[in-house]
Amino acid sequence: MTAFALDDPFDRSKSRVPGPGGLLRTAADSIPPSGLVLLAIVSVQLGAGFAKDLFHLLPPSAMVFLRIAAGALIITAVARPRLRGMTKRDWAVVVGFGGTLAVMNLTFYEALARLPMGIAVAIEFLGPLGVAVAASRRRLDLLWVLLAAGGVVLLAPWGQSSSVSWAGIGFALVAGACWAGYILLSAAAGQRFSGATGLSLAMVVSAVVIAPVGVTAGGADLLQPEVLLIGLGVGLLSSVIPYSLELQALRRMPKHVFGILMSLEPAVAAMIGLVVLGEILHLREWAAVICVVAASLGATRVRKKL
């Protein structure tokens, strides 16, 4: 996941009053970086849990639109991206980044509608795991691939009583592939744009891409004040807050430690699903989640020792 920081919207050297970004950084500096990463993970999964709990009010595509639109408005207002001097290649990266972000979120929410949270996140996590393994190219990486694949096999709905559906697995796999693309495009955007410019522009593009689907699915319900408030809350929990916390953490800790902590995300998602949604995973499903977490931890730790 790409990090994002809430930078000061004005030059603090011209004012003795700290901006909102300065206040957030001051608060974040008092928390250990590992704590920031864990808070970011919990924030993301809480946002997903609250969104899923409201699927009876809005379909997944409409909820995705609210989340992305709210996040785009907040991030753009704070980051204030500049469009001057952008080349065609810059715009190509932004459009690709935004389109990938839109499909990733849409397919993940569709997976959430069909799978328990922990399982959906575990399958989606195969995307970043694949990027990590591809970057290493060591024989030992085959072990982590087989371990993750074994987790997916354990999740397959072999029995009628399973809480997992093939459609849900398919949506989660597409979301994982998009997450892999998101990581690569995020790196490309980071090389071309300073600060959060690339991410903020990609969020705007993503909102535009998802708008036709989300507005059609949500209809007039999207204009209800309580629904708009929900969208703002989910956008904050799922995008703005975790992006800010992650970037603050990355500034103060090695990347391999960050990757190890992020590997806990499927397990945290399963716990949030249990607490917020009452989703109880069977032993086989917990084993599958643990397989994915262990594969991610293994790939990250081995890459650190190279």
Automatic annotation (TrEMBL):
Annotated transmembrane regions: 57-79, 91-109, 115-135, 142-159, 165-185, 197-215, 227-245, 257-277, 283-302
Domain EamA: 167-298
Keyword Transmembrane helix among UniProt keywords: yes
One GO cellular component term: plasma membrane
Subcellular location per the Swiss-Prot or TrEMBL entry: Cell membrane
Bilayer topology annotation: Multi-pass membrane protein
Protein name stated in the entry: Inner membrane transporter RhtA
Record lineage: Bacteria, Bacillati, Actinomycetota, Actinomycetes, Streptosporangiales
